Each structure stands twice: as structure tokens, then as C-alpha cells.
Amino acid sequence: MRTGRVLIIEENSMVPVDRRVWYEATSLRDAGWDVIVICPEGTGAHAGKPKVGDTSHITQEVLDGVTVYRFPLVFAEHGVADYLREYVTAYISITRLAWHVWRNGPFDILHICNPPDIFFPLGLFYRILGARFIFDHHDLFPEMVGSRYQSQAGKFLYAIARISEYFTLRSADVVIATNESYRRIALDRGCVPAEKVIVVRNGPKTEEFTPEEPLAALKRGFPFLVCYVGVMGQQDGISELVETIDFVVHSLGRDDILFVLVGDGADHTMAKTRLKERGLGRFVDMPGMIRNTGDLRRYMSSADVFVSPEPRSPLNIHSTFIKIGEYMAMGKPIVAYDLPETRYTAEEAAFYVEHGDTAGFGKAITALLDDPERRQRMGAIGRKRVVDKLSWEHQQQHLFRAYEIALSARREVSKHNSTE
After folding, report:
1. Do 297 and 375 belong together in one domain?
2. pLDDT (tens digit, 9 = 90+) per residue, 347-356?
3. Which residue of 59, 76, 111, 138 could cross-link 83, Cys pair, CB 3.0 to 4.6 Å?
4. CA atoms within 13 Å, Cβ hemisphere of 26
5. How far apart are alpha carbons 125 and 122 in whole angstroms?
6. Exposed, middle or buried by CB within 10 Å (0-12, 13-18, 19+), for 129?
7. How much is the pTM?
8. Longest dimension (CA), the chain
9. Which CATH number characterizes residue 122's domain?
10. Could you tell me the residue range of the domain that residue 305 belongs to?
11. Do residues 398 and 365 share a domain?
12. Rounded to whole angstroms, what are the CA distances from 363 to 224, 367, 368?
């Protein structure tokens, strides 16, 4: 594989918390690439209030051989104005940092991750300067916009998002899709040639997500531990999970289960408030975002059942959730709503529940807790599927293929120019 210099840009998360982007960066580093990442340092409302274009707090560090530039950002939590402020702030900071990186040494590949789909002008600009543009399609930005805003204004914003998505897909030399659903969207909505769309699935590194001995202290004296790991946003089903916990404790009378909700996001505070109001505080532990892989692995190894409560939506029916592969790697069964890509990934490692049936979700959890043989069998199926097919060790080969295609496109352009 040819190597060179690559700049990876992401706006809605940061490394190494975003494991997909971090896996991409470190795999490219190991293959001999000089890797630079631009990402936020903010973590929501607690990140401070940077002014638009403020570069006074930009930081630079070398993290495990990867150069990382971080810019201050407050992630939007409510309303159109919040999101506009976030995106304008991010756009100005990312544009300035990308130019700073280019001036210190041109990069061969500009690798932009979404959401949002607003950075295609950067891709086009650096293509003119000679770089190749890879678009890493993580989420369906139009569907995210549509789920947030149901008004007439929301329909207008959705239309703008679709236009932005189209230009992003069309302007890329290569599109990396996280699954076959996203690949079909690139082909159909973006009119991208099939040979330019490469599927690189969300898969855990088996060395990081290997089960270890459960830690009894994490169960706080409860016989069972049910665990959620991930972002807590509107589309992640945290509100539905609160309803399920309420049903399990108050309707089924189960006082032998500790629910551990690991993560952070816009719905974290809402969930904590609702749980307290319903007298569920002692049955739930919410440790926040755990960034240390070893600590996270200990929580996950202590779980008896994992939950993936994402509801059916135009976004979720097409999406593959990173948590599913990580759950499977830990060798434990999953309870999830029946979504196409979740079913494709987990197969028999998950217990599927009809959409919106929060009571059924709770009954599925307790049924698995009361059937240890079934839990062990499902967990073994999931672990084997990850090791044999879905782990990052398998996926990184597809990443390298995407880079080879992008570099080939650059060589073709150079060859064409030299003959004119």
C-alpha cells in the first residue's frame, strides 16, 4: 500500500473517544501514513463559550503517533440557533486549521467524517490543490435534521441537508459507507459510481474488547447488571429505556437488577431527572462517558445483558450502531429493537423486540436474565461472529482499499495532465 500524509476531520466527536475514527487513524499510522486529525475539544454545555472563529484555545498534541489539533466547541443541544452557532464556529476553526496543516506540508488525502455534511467546499478546494477527498459517511445528516425539526422550517432544513449531502457525495473521490444501507444511499441519492463506494463497517478491536473476570463491586450488591454503552442523544432511545426500567422495577417488581448507563449526550440530564422523579435512582448507575478502555471493559465484562434501545426512525433503520459490535465482542447477549442493520450485525446474538414496545423490551431483559444457558449461547454466537468477520482487524483492509482507490484517482489525474 502506498502511503503519504492524511488529514482527518470530524466535527461531532473527538479522538480517541470516537473509536471508529481513532481506529482509522491508528491503522493508517501503522501502515506508514503521517496522520493528522482535526476535531473538537468540547463536550457539550460544559465546554465553555467560544466566540466564532476563536483560535486562542486551539491545542495541538501528538497522541500515540497521531498529531491532533483540537478546537473549542459547544455542541448544540436545543434549537436551530444552537446548531447554526455550532456549525459556524466549527467551520471557521476547521477551515483555518486545515490551511495551517497544508502550509506546513501538503496532505495527499483529505478524509472528512460526517455529520454534518457541510464541509464539501473544503474537499473541492483541496482537490484543486492536488489532494484526494474521501468522505466517511457515518450518519444520515438529512434524516437527523428531519427527526429534530417537524415544522415547516424543519422541512426546509431537511431539503437543504439533502442538497448538502448530494454535493458531499458527488464531490468525493471515494465514499466510505458504514454498511450496505449507506452504500445504497450513496449510489441512489448521491449518484456515486459503485466502484467509488467502499463499505467499512463499525467493528471493535478484539484486543480492546475481550471479556475479563466480572468485578463484583460494580454490581453494588445486585445479582444482575444490565448495561447500556454509548451516546445519549434523541435518536438513541434513552427516553424509551427509562420507560423500560420503570416497567421492570415497578410493574414486574424486579429489585434485583442494576442498570448501568455508560455515556453522555443531550438526553443524559433528562434521563437522570426522570429516573429520580420515578424513584429509580438506586437501581441505576450513570457513570458518564468512560474514556479509559480498561475501565470500560471492566463495566462491560460485569454485565449480564446489554441493551440497544434505538427506536425505529428514518435514520436508525439504515444505521449500524458501534455499540452492537462491542457488545458482541464481550460475549454477552443483547436486547434490541428490530432494526434491519442491527439484525444483520447481531443475527442470533440479540433478542429482538417490536418497535415501541417498552414493556416487551423489559420482559425480554428479564427473560434473558432468568435463562443463563441462553445468555451463554447467544453471547458465544456474538463473540464468534465478531472474531471471524466483524472486528476492526477485518474492516481495516477495506479502509486501505478505499485509500488505494483514492490514490489511483490522483495518479490518473496526474497522468492525464501530463499528456495535455
Report:
1. yes
2. 999 999 999 9
3. 76
4. 13
5. 5
6. exposed
7. 0.87
8. 78
9. 3.40.50.2000
10. 216-390
11. no
12. 15, 6, 9
